[in-house]
Write a structure and sequence with these properties.
157 residues, mainly alpha, Cytochrome Bc1 Complex, Chain D, domain 2, two-stranded antiparallel sheet, globular
Length: 157
Amino acid sequence: MRLTLTVLALASLAAPAMAQDIEAGAKTFNQCQTCHVVQNEAGEVLAGRNSKTGPNLYGLPGRVVGSVEGFKYGESIVAVGAAGQVWDEANFVEYVQDPAKYLKAKLGDDKAKSKMAFKVRSADDAANLWAFIASLSPAVAAAEGEAEAAEEAPASN
């Protein structure tokens, strides 16, 4: 019995804690577009209003934290990126709920600061926001295409 409970507890830690809703994330992004845009390499605005206060969020999944070329980040977020941190769902969800707290924890520095003052209210909203931004990412589109091709390919024995 004890082993079963331990296995179930560990499995729940490995599973995503939040359901993702891209449409809900698009609604949450309405709050973000004051400062951020999702604009592809061709200059097409996929989401937002071409704001430049915050960095472009196009291609965010897998990108090194604080690394959009030409954007002037704060020292703390650049230091997190220099330590090798990349944007994934867990980091993003934690960061957008409290940017300063995230940077302080990642750097182990109570004086770490964030230029981003806005906080997403809930983990669910943050996960949905991640899903929306990721849905506009070229990496996500490529992965979806590869998955579809693998499903269509005949099985080899």
